[in-house]
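Throughout our pipeline, every protein is held as a single compact record rather than as scattered files. The record that follows is passed on verbatim for readers who wish to inspect the format:
___
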Amino acid sequence: MKIVGDIPHPFLKITIFKWNEKFSVKFEAGVLEQTYKFRDGEGVDNLNDVLSVVDETFIESVAARMTEMQQIRQAALLRFAPAAEDEFEEII
């Protein structure tokens, strides 16, 4: 897999890869990531096609999904390790 490009964005790292006759577009935000793959023959045959498909509307949808993913992750962490306030005795 090789990196063939990136898309500048203020808070997402967007990297475009080419491997085995498909493009992968990876979006990263902190510890979260999403990857979308486009196979040759889907009309996405070169880097310019990828840049056309991954437009502002696409990126906005990915960013919204990242927010949902963060909420899911945070809720899971809270269920796993509830608030630490019950761990210590009250000192008067």
In short: The CA atoms of residues 3 and 17 lie 4 Å apart. The longest strand covers residues 22-29. The mean pLDDT is 91.
